Amino acid sequence: MSGAHAAPRGRMAAPMAGLRTGYITLFDVRFEHGFYNAGGGACPDLRVVPTPACAALMRQLNMVFRDHGTGFSVLVNAARAEAMIAFLRSSYANGPQGRGFWSRLSFQLVATNPGFVGMTRLPITTNLMTDNLHLDNRSASAAAGRMQVEAGGADALVPLAGTGWAVPTPAGRTAALLDLSGAPVAARTSVSDAVTRFDLTGLPYGLYSVAVTGRTGRPIAPRGPGATRLYLPRTPVSLALLDLLLTQPVPGAGDPAAYPVSPMAAPAARGAATPPATIRPVALTIGFQSRATYWHYYIVARGRGQFADDLAITGGDVSFAKSRAALPNGDRAILFTAATALPLHQHAPQCFRLSGHRQGATGARDPISVARLPTAPPAPVWPVAGGGALSGSSEIYVYV
Question: Is the entire prediction scored with pTM above 0.85?
Answer without folding.
Answer: yes
